[in-house]
Every structure is written in structure tokens, then in C-alpha cells.
Amino acid sequence: MATLEKILIIRFSSIGDIILASPLIRMLRTAYPQAQIDFLVKSEYVELIKHNQHLSSVIELRTTQREELHLLRQRIQKESYTAIFDIHNSLRSRHLRKFSGAKYVRVVKKHALARFLLVNLKKNFYPKNILPVAQRYLATATSFGIDDDGKGLEVFVPDDTVSSTAAMLSKYNLNQHHHIIGIVPSAKHFTKRWLPERFVEFGVKSTSGGQLKLLIFGGKDDVDYCGDIAQMINARVGRTTAESVAGKFSLLETAAAFDHCHVIVTNDTGLMHLAGARQRKVVAIFGSTVREFGFFPYGVENIVIERKGLDCRPCSHIGLQQCPQGHFRCMKDIHVDDVLNAAQSLLDSTPIEKITHNA
Q1: What domain range includes position 35?
Q2: Dist. CA 97–CA 13, nearest whole Å
Q3: Domain holding 283: CATH number?
Q4: pLDDT tens digits in sequence order for the chain, 359 residues long
Q5: Structural domains in the chain (count)
Q6: Closest by alpha carbon to 114, among 104, 133, 127?
Q7: Does residue 151 belong to any structural domain of this protein?
């Protein structure tokens, strides 16, 4: 088997893809404990990867300007990497790996043709055994003895971030509740969002017993959206049972906050994979996207809820800003009780003592 002394992994974005690369990073480090292993990523996602103990260094792509790409290409050439694993496979990544001088270059198989045919012609040529994206990344290194260790995804959170996040959450008195459910109601694209009124109804029904707390997560752009959902839940219930923390946490702080939740109920988003990286149980709601694309929850107990049998599904592999058919049945046909029963099933199998609420 080849000896890899210097390794570069290229994955510029996005949240989910970078997290899904963590098994590849870990297994390369296991196989080559003395190797230099670097990771090239866009600056806005460095937070997700900079504390990964298996990496030697993180290289940032700050802009897409030609001058920076040229300098990065020169840097890669100067490093004389033994192997480059391009798990992005874009025009920019091809530009950077070209003439790198690396002895081995491995590129992820994206199934681009199968994806195009499924989205546009509704012809499914994906293998019957659907390969998760994390395993597609691992497959780039199989010739070097790399295999899946079954340990799932990981995101490394510094101890001070864990402590500061716990302090921020302490005002919600989470330790007074038997169960905590995290909710991720937003998504970048409209067709990947379950209806907000359904999330409200889910929140009302799930907290009817009185011993359950809801934490609603989102980014800075989701503050109003998540805040409205929390307010409507609380107004319906008649007490403060839902807390919106949207915009209050960084990605790593969100990961630390997920540790306080028994179950995460989420759309098909990057935070779904962040929950998986923290070994949380996941209820994932899929609308316009499908399992064939490989982005379903990986390595954790999960239930995927989707409306099967729709001729128009999938309409996109990343989501759209509106339903092309106008009916939005992929989400409207997913009912509150479907999600409620899934969450309850995962809660019933979660020992309360497994969750630690740090004051």
C-alpha cells in the first residue's frame, strides 16, 4: 500500500458537506498517523473544521478572485502533496489540483448524470443501495486502505465554547424538563421548509404534557422567522415552552447547544448534519429533495419523513424558491402527527440520564 506523507483534502463548502467529510479525515489520520493532512475550505466555514484534531492545518479560500486562486495554486505546488482528495470537484478545485505535482489525485464521484436524469426526467439510475455522501467521500481513498469505521460524523467543539454555551442556556432552566427537543424550521430554499404553521402545531402538541422544552435554532437571517414560531407556540400553549435561539449562536455554539437536546426535528439542512455530528437523534423532513442524493442523516438513529410517490419529486437537488407545480404537496402532505409520532418514538428510546444539562 502507498505511503502518503502529505495529504490535501479540498472541500470549499457548505455546512453539511464539510461535516460529512469528517469520517474521511479521521480515517486518513488513522491510516497515516504521521502524515501532514491539510484541508482547503472557504473562510466562512473554517469554524467547522479548525479545531479538528486530525488535521495538521486548515487552508482558507477567502475570495474567488483569480489572483488568490493563482496564489493558492502556487502554494499547493510548493507543498508537493503526495495525495490530493478533491471531494468538491468544481471548476475551482480542478484549477487548483491541476499541475499540483501530487503523485495521487482522487476525485469524488458525484453521480451528476444520474442526478440530472432523476431531477429533470424522473428516471432513477442511482444504485439500489444508496450510498451516503460521507461514504462517497470515503470511497475516494479505498485504494489506500481507507474504510468506514462506523463512528459517524464529528465536529470538534472547544471546552470553553461548551461552557459558555451552557451558561447562555442556563436561563432557560433546561434541567427542569424531562425532554428537550431542538427544532430547525428554516432552510435556505423554500421547497426544503416544512410549513411554519405545522411547526407551530407540532410545538403545541408536543408540549401538551408540560414536561418538555423546545429550543428553536436558526441563523441570523432566521431570527424573525424562528421568533414568530416560538411566540405562536407559547401563545397557543399559554406559557413559555418554546425559546428561539436563532441568531444567538455561532455554528460551534449551536453544536454545543444541540448536546442539550434529546431529539432534533429539522428540515434537510446543514444543521441536520451538525446534529448528527453531535450524536443527536434526528427527525428529518424532506420535501423537494430525496434520499438518492445521499444527504440523509448519517451515523445516528434517525427517521426521515417524506411524501413518496409524487411524480414531481425531486424537483431539485438543492431546493428552489417556489414549488414549480404550485401545489407544494411534498411538504403539505406531511402532517403534524407524522412528525410528532416520529419524535415521540425517538424520545421513548432516549434515557433521560444520557443528557447532561450544565448550569
Answers
A1: 6-144
A2: 17
A3: 3.40.50.2000
A4: 688 999 999 999 999 999 999 999 999 999 999 999 999 999 999 999 999 999 999 999 998 889 999 999 999 999 999 999 999 999 999 999 998 999 999 999 999 999 999 999 999 999 888 999 999 999 999 999 999 999 999 999 999 999 999 999 999 999 999 999 999 999 999 999 999 999 999 999 999 877 899 999 999 999 999 999 999 999 999 999 999 999 999 999 999 999 999 999 999 999 999 999 999 999 999 999 999 999 999 999 999 999 999 999 999 999 999 999 999 999 999 999 999 999 999 999 765 444 433 32
A5: 2
A6: 127
A7: no
Q: Is residue 1 part of a domain?
A: no
In a domain, 108, yes or no: yes
Domain finish residue from 144, 175, 207: 144
Q: In what order do the strands lie in the sheet with 263-267?
A: 242-244, 212-216, 179-184, 263-267, 281-286, 302-306
Residues 336 and 194 in one domain: yes
Determine how β-strand 242-244 pairs with β-strand 263-267: unpaired
